[in-house]
């Protein structure tokens, strides 16, 4: 059984947390945790490529790559979402390799590139918190702070909904706890 979704109002926008599968989200854009070669892979990126169909990899190959801490946008092809944002988070190396700034930047660039395409609703996975090894509680804090900061400092952007889709109960609980601490009660 999935935990109850949580929501926080940030100005005219909203940050939501749900437990689920990102490829099933009916939002304007979903974000995948890509590698810098945009070569596809396992984890959430494998699920997104599988659900979008082979044209997604062709689109990624045409772009060619994306530096760590940045993001690029493609169509969603067979997905319910119009767009896929390919965000490249850092590999966790213990915390002293600029990981926090790079992860925050991956979220910020994802939101910026989405807003450039008039995206109103976007869904994120826990970038870097799988194979890339970023501790889930710290990844959650960075993700929530970066999103809140973007919404507060860009109130005129198209973005009205930022949803975090946590794949399992444990990551949902960790994100929910971080959201209470970072975003307060709502
Ligand atoms: P990274 O390489 O950036 O760490 P991963 O794909 O390994 O990316 O994992 C990022 C997070 O996405 C992990 O918490 C993982 O459990 C989660 N995840 C995997 N598949 C999905 C999915 N279909 N929907 C949402 N989250 C997913």
| CATH fold-level name | Leucine Aminopeptidase, subunit E, domain 1
Content of β-strand? 15-25%
How many helical elements? 5
Name the ligand types. adenosine-5'-diphosphate
> Fraction of residues in helices?
25-40%
Structure description:
With 186 residues, the protein is an alpha/beta fold. It has one domain (6-183): Leucine Aminopeptidase, subunit E, domain 1, CATH 3.40.220.10. It has a 7-stranded mixed sheet, sandwiched between helices. Helix content is 38%, strand content 20%. Strand 1 and strand 2 (13-19) form a beta hairpin. It has helices spanning 43-52, 55-63, 99-116, 136-153, 169-183; strands spanning 6-10, 13-19, 29-33, 71-75, 83-87, 121-124, 161-166. Bound molecules: adenosine-5'-diphosphate. Adenosine-5'-diphosphate binds at residues 21-23, 33, 43-45, 47, 89, 125-132, 165, 167, 171. Residues 21-23, 33, 43-45, 47, 89, 125-132, 165, 167, 171 line the site of adenosine-5'-diphosphate (ADP).
Brief overview, please?
The model has no long low-confidence stretch (mean pLDDT 96). This protein has helices at residues 43-52, 55-63, 99-116, 136-153, 169-183, and strands at residues 6-10, 13-19, 29-33, 71-75, 83-87, 121-124, 161-166.
Main attributes of the structure:
alpha/beta; Leucine Aminopeptidase, subunit E, domain 1; seven-stranded mixed sheet; 5 helices; 20% strand
